[in-house]
Amino acid sequence: MGKVYLVGAGPGDPGLLTMRAYELLGMADVVIYDALVSPEILALIPEQTEKINAGKRMGRHSLLQTDTTKLLIAKAQEVATVVRLKGGDPFMFGRGGEELGDLLMAGIETTVVPGVTAGIAAPAYAGIPLTHRDYSSSVIFVTGHESAGKYRPAVNWEAIAKSAETIVVYMGIHNLPYIVDKLLQAGLTGTTPIALIRWGTTAAQEELIGTLHSINEQVQESGFSAPAIIVIGESIGFREKYLTAGSGF
Questions:
Q1: Confidence of residue 32 (pLDDT cuts 50, 70, 90)
Q2: I want to staple 144 with a disulfide (CB 3.0 to 4.6 A). Which of 52, 169, 191, 214 is the partner?
């Protein structure tokens, strides 16, 4: 019986890959990777290593989650070292916990290798500190990937709006109008800053900065699309104050 490593690939920049992750990519018999793992990181995998795309993007699933778990178990029964390569960190909205539970129930030895999560890295690359003594002393991470019309939604946006000064939303672009509406209903003002950061930490990174009142129209006009991280809060003002001053960040 082989061993499975649930490995975080980080947000995209290969320079943010951990040394342990790099080491495991070089020794793996098979790498089963997600859609958000960057081409630059996939290029680090040796040519002779078996590579399987198990990525999931909205409306385009290479493998169902149950099929991915079955594949991991099957490969662990065939080879010594299986790397399950997941974008960002395996446990941060990456279903790593689900996969770990299934593997352990199947009697597969498994180790988790954390990765740098996009919710921290993308704002940093955009010059937005999530916490700052002058702007924000608290931050909360939340998924925006839920059906806007579903009964009793999993995310309590009213509680989120009142819980932290900075809100970081993963997978929220498709539900952005719904999220903005809920936050406004919860008491955030229309002038609250919001930043959308697409393909964070990669050469293709781009940002769209606005307010809760303006952002939906900006997205429509620009065609801004997923995958992106959303940051909401006054800490975005740091970027606007210092980067616009030409500090050379």
A1: very high
A2: 169
Q: What is the chain's length?
A: 249
pLDDT tens-digit profile of 82-124?
A: 999 999 999 999 899 999 999 999 999 999 999 999 999 999 9
Q: Annotated catalytic residue: which of 86, 102, 171, 182? A: 171
The structure's pTM equals 0.90
DSSP 8-state secondary structure symbol assigned to residue 197: E
134 is catalytic: no
Place of tokens 């199947």: 106
Strand 3-8 relative to strand 81-86: parallel, antiparallel, unpaired?
parallel
- From the candidates 3, 51, 56, 70, give the one annotated as an active-site residue: 56
Q: Is 148's pLDDT higher than 70?
A: no
CATH number, residue 69 = 3.40.1010.10
Q: Is 34 known to be catalytic? A: yes
Dihedral sign from CA coordinates of 15, 98, 154, 176: positive
CATH number at residue 123: 3.30.950.10
pLDDT value for 145: 78
Residue ranges making up the domain that contains 99: 3-116
What pLDDT is stored for residue 183 in this prediction? Answer: 97
CA atoms within 13 A of residue 182's CA, in its CB half-sphere: 18
- Active-site residue, 56 included: yes
Residue 248 lies in a domain: no
Catalytic residue among 34, 75, 92, 102: 34
